[in-house]
Prior knowledge:
Layout: H1 5-12, H2 16-23, H3 29-34, E1 54-56, H4 60-63, E2 66-68, E3 72-74, H5 76-84, H6 88-98, H7 121-137, E4 139-140, H8 147-154, E5 168-178, E6 181-194, E7 200-207, E8 222-224, E9 238-241, E10 248-252, H9 255-264, E11 270-273, H10 277-282, E12 291-295, E13 298-299, E14 302-304, E15 307-309, H11 312-327, E16 331-335, E17 347-348, H12 350-364, H13 366-380
Parallel strand pairs: 10-11, 10-12, 12-16
Antiparallel strand pairs: 1-2, 2-3, 4-5, 5-6, 6-7, 7-8, 9-11, 13-17, 14-15
Helix pairs in contact: 9-12
Amino acid sequence: MKLEKEDILRMAEGHWSSVMAALVPSVDWAHLCARPDRNETSCPIHGGNSGKAFRVGKQFQVNGTTLCHSCGPMDGLELIRAVNCYSFPQVLEAIYEALGGRVVVPVVNRTPVAPTPLRTPAEDQQLRNYLGRVWNESIPLSHPDAGPARLWFRNRGLPGWVPAVDSVRFHRALPYRHKEEEIGKYPCLVSRVLDRDGRLVTLHRGWITNKGEKPDLPGDTRKSLPIPTDCRVMGAATPLRSVADDVVLHVAEGLETTASVDVITLGRNSVWSCRTAGGLANVDIPASTKLVCIWADRDRDQVRGNDTILGGAGLESARELYSRVVANGLTALMIVPPDAIPKSSKSLDWNDMLLHFGVTRIREHGDFATRLDAAIANVLKGQQV
């Protein structure tokens, strides 16, 4: 079955609260929908300082319409695309996945209402069972059969790298579905996404080839499984290295970028992958942390209405996290790739830097040594940077 825009909108009608909760988790949709004529919050696109710029529209449960004083009105497709920097096909596929990867009977309700679960308790249990089965079928990256996974990381300048904790595994042949069709079974990297209490929220999957390369498959080959009703993905992350009671935490977006950070920092501190720009902006910081090192992606500038977002979603999310960390009385350090984005690329991250320069040259860079090593040393001494 080929799903087009009209199919997705028809499926999502009456379920936009749940769709938005999954794909734009930085917003408290239950709060907005409880009093759509009054309740407001910060815009998930441009932020703002008042906390009163953004609300749901009268047709929210019909088409996901929202209103922002700065960005203007948007339907659900536009908002999800802007917040996550998705292409239009990725938006359609993300909504389809948020609806559980199945056709949902439209609920015609012209008045915004509080979110209703898409799954029954029995369906939630089936989902948990599937999450457990996929994880148990997967093997550590050090396993003899996990060669494609090791090739994947070697091809990205990370030979021999494995996570210090059991958070990333390799599945020999995980089914790949595009819309309602199973395309086949392919090698896949499987990452555990955990909440602040260490509870499994979902699994993030990234399909690869047996040669450790990107597969030629339709749709986005990196996607998360649905989330149980009683879990929240906002704030969750994939720990690649966890040091008990560590006062230093390194955070970055994607798996390969974060693995590069683990290598660059010589495995001395906790390192977490937040998966996306939105995940980075909203990650929960442990109580023991004193210094948060934010390894930002440098994306191309984005124009939103009359505003230009310098550094795109990558730097915007890093700045948002930086502000939140400092507001909470902690020390934050933003570490941004110093080079310009190549003309052939959409962004520049720390895996790109590692591939180009190598660990030694990065660590010998004066700015790196001065800012990062000094910041860590000062925090360990109990000093403020």
